[in-house]
């Protein structure tokens, strides 16, 4: 299939179909932006879409995304068999609904809920929806408590690190909540409780703590944040809860850092979300959110639907959505168990630390972190190394080899610091890691041979992956 000029309304409005792919009687030229007058044979439609999709990058070499890009063949088979299941239709698909409940109960137990049977949770399309639900529960619970006390409930705020994922900015924007960002600095690379008292007040609905900062992969110390909030409560009486955004780390820490207290072992943690489609090892389209107790999810946000002759509580922003990913999550829970998850996540961390050590050994770079939290690490260019190229130039060189390794500025107080980051997922082997390091060395050597600066180009304004 090739594109060529032809009858057009825009610069790329038509597609010409190669005679090898077209069938007798079919149009050879079709419009990209208008529905054709007649049908096309399935083989031809497949070839058109298949060929355009070839232009995408190789997902296995995408070291920018946290999202799962590989599952084994039995999981792919299960996926194909269950694509038609609608998660919201619990009456039609009661077995899938039962599996959904099993999954979030498994997570409640994994995250040390005091009584997993008393917890409540649900699946979502991804962590963004799960974060929205956690934030909404905070807001509604705060509003109901304020109104019951006869106090105004019109100026809620949420406190978080300046390095939060963009979903929290969206939550505050969409739901009329003031976002209060605690800036990260060289001395305080994550939200760690330092200076927290300057940001909270009686209108604070909660604090967001991150297990695996998007920019760098670092854990925020949940125990230190909780201790700071304990001290604030002792001096002011304000009892402020924590939501843990564990999009990545909530499926790493239980297996690689089991003694670390970050979850429901900390009383102040009310809710936790994670991405099933990240280190939950499931294809895109799945998140989870769990509350330590049912009473922490306000009844006013819960709807009841008919299910097996009874009622089932539901709480979600989306209505119709795929059920296949939920079944894939249960497949992974059955397939791997605790030890299997530990082995898979350990393999990813081993590769991340190997890569980090390789980057650190190069004279041009210094590490920001080394992949000892989630299997993610970041580095920056040494200040005195060169004025002729930047990490954006290195990113371009690596992209030419197929690798997607993003460079971006850090947030707010560190916006003058540019870092480059690698996310290691299941499927990135030690062999591929060696090939990546070779390509980084080759690219750096070529860039270091420059005798003058490369032309300036605008750096991206921020990082919102």
TrEMBL record:
Which protein family is named in the record?
Belongs to the group II decarboxylase family.
Q: What enzyme category does the UniProt record give? A: lyase
Question: Could you tell me which InterPro entries the record lists for this protein?
Answer: Glutamate_decarboxylase, PyrdxlP-dep_de-COase, PyrdxlP-dep_Trfase, PyrdxlP-dep_Trfase_major
Q: What is this protein called?
A: Glutamate decarboxylase
EC number from the UniProt entry = 4.1.1.15
Q: Does the keyword Lyase apply?
A: yes
Q: Which domain of life is it from?
A: Bacteria
What species is this protein from?
Catenulispora yoronensis
